[in-house]
Every structure is written in C-alpha cells, then in structure tokens.
Amino acid sequence: MLKILPLKFWLVFALVFILDQASKYLFLQGLEYKGEFFDLVLTYNTGVAFSMFAFLGEYLKYIQLVFILALFGYLLYQKDFFKTHLIAFAIMLSAGCSNLLDRFVHIGVVDFVFWHKWFEFAVFNLADVMINISVALILIKEIFNKKGEIC
C-alpha cells in the first residue's frame, strides 16, 4: 500500500522529519537563547499539547503510535480525501512521527520554543508548528475548495 503514495508525499515527509530532528539536535547539544519575548531552551514534554496526559507515562508513546497508525490507515482508506490533502497529511504524519521518535529515544518530546512576553505559552517545537500548519492547510482547502482550488 505504501507504493501508492507519490514521491512528493515522501519528499515532504522526509524534509519535515529531518528539519524537526535537526532543530531538536541543536538544543540537545546545548544551544540556548534567552530573549525579551521568547527563549529557546531545551525541555522535555512527557505529555501531549500543553503537557496533557503526562500522567500516562510510558503508555503515552504506545497510545500515540496506535493513533498515528490508525490515522494513516484511515487516510489510505479515504483515498480521495487523502489525495486532496496529500501535502498537508505528509506534514502532519511526519511531524507526529518525529515527536513519537522523541518519546522512544528521549525522556519525552524535545521542545525548545518558550514564549513568555505578556503571557506564558506552552513550550513547543518545529513539529508542533508543522502540525498546526497542516491543519490550517486542510481547513483552508476545504473551505475554499467549493469555490476553486487555492492550495
């Protein structure tokens, strides 16, 4: 079944995965920046967004693995929807896999962007940003698809 995915899916998947892991590597090697608006500092998130479900401990990585496999399987089953949003899903699945790899290799997901000007926001990483971008791409395409293709 994986042979049916076009090369552009795998290229985007690889690019996002490599960029995310490379950015995390820099912080694992000690890169740090402290600024007025945000800090770039190494942290480990043992939960999911906003550290939710951290209480699941070691089980969380297996739950996330099942979730990613189920999503991928569902998308392969929903061929038209998957094909319509191929790039967005390549980004989303790659970012999810990159964060999942962190759970197995490190003590949690490697996060490093901490916004603290005016309010404190959850610490996040490039994969988290890419997941949000992929969701936005899907929503934009679905909203405007009725009127004509935009992305």
From TrEMBL:
UniProt keyword terms in alphabetical order: Aspartyl protease, Cell membrane, Hydrolase, Lipoprotein, Membrane, Protease, Transmembrane, Transmembrane helix
Function statement: This protein specifically catalyzes the removal of signal peptides from prolipoproteins.
Cellular compartment(s): Cell membrane
Metabolic or biological pathway, per its Swiss-Prot or TrEMBL entry: Protein modification; lipoprotein biosynthesis (signal peptide cleavage)
Reactions the enzyme catalyzes: Release of signal peptides from bacterial membrane prolipoproteins. Hydrolyzes -Xaa-Yaa-Zaa-|-(S,diacylglyceryl)Cys-, in which Xaa is hydrophobic (preferably Leu), and Yaa (Ala or Ser) and Zaa (Gly or Ala) have small, neutral side chains
GO biological process, one term: proteolysis
InterPro entries documented for this protein: Peptidase_A8 (IPR001872)
An annotated GO cellular component: plasma membrane
Family classification: Belongs to the peptidase A8 family.
GO molecular function terms attached to this record: aspartic-type endopeptidase activity
Pfam families registered for this protein in UniProt: Peptidase_A8
Gene name per UniProt: lspA
Membrane topology reported for the UniProt record: Multi-pass membrane protein
NCBIfam families assigned to the protein according to its UniProt record, in alphabetical order: lspA
Source species of the chain: Campylobacter lari NCTC 11845
Main location: membrane
Record's signal peptide: none
Name of the protein in question: Lipoprotein signal peptidase
